[in-house]
């Protein structure tokens, strides 16, 4: 069985750094891959392979909504319409806190919607909760 990892789609370099630091500070040694936009995310998944040649997909995707080239909404729609990628849990992880946007993301197939915390201490807690849920509580295909 392949090692499970996390794919993070985030265009802001500071947010990527904070996310990586939060996982490290919590003591997690998970493989975390970062992409900067939706085009890179889809390309990453399309070319994902293990050493034995089979596909290796993340345990879940943290998806920012506001990215260049292809935003999170478009990527979410594409992922959830794809015959294989639709099985990967997608956690929308964004600064947008708007009821209409939240509803739209769930309609597009988001598995969860989390508003980015405003402090690093809160980020530590959110990272732990998301990771524990998708790797220890939830059952995924």
TrEMBL record:
Q: Report domain Response regulatory positions.
A: 5-131
* Signal sequence region: none
> InterPro entries under this entry?
CheY-like_superfamily, Sig_transdc_resp-reg_receiver, TCS_response_regulator
The GO annotation for biological process reads: phosphorelay signal transduction system
| Keyword entries, A-Z | Phosphoprotein
Please name one Pfam family that this protein belongs to. Answer: Response_reg
Keyword hit for Phosphoprotein: yes
Matching CDD domains, A to Z?
REC_Rcp-like
- What SMART domains does the annotation carry? REC
Regions that span the bilayer: none
Give the 4-aspartylphosphate positions (modified residues).
64
Q: What is this protein called?
A: Response regulator
- What's the source species' lineage? Bacteria, Pseudomonadati, Bacteroidota, Cytophagia, Cytophagales
């Amino acid at each position: 069985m392949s090692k499970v990892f996390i794919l993070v789609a985030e265009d802001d370099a500071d947010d990527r750094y904070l996310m990586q630091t939060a996982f490290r500070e919590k003591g997690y040694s998970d493989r975390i891959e970062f992409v900067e936009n939706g085009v890179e995310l889809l390309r990453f998944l399309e070319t994902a392979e293990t050493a034995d040649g089979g596909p290796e997909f993340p345990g879940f995707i943290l998806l920012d909504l506001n990215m260049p080239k292809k935003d999170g909404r478009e990527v979410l729609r594409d992922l959830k319409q794809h015959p294989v990628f639709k099985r990967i849990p997608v956690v929308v992880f964004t600064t947008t806190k708007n009821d209409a946007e939240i509803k739209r993301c769930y309609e597009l197939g988001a598995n969860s919607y989390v508003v980015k915390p405003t402090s690093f201490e809160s980020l530590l807690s959110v990272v732990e909760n998301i990771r524990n849920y998708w790797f220890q509580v939830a059952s995924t295909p």
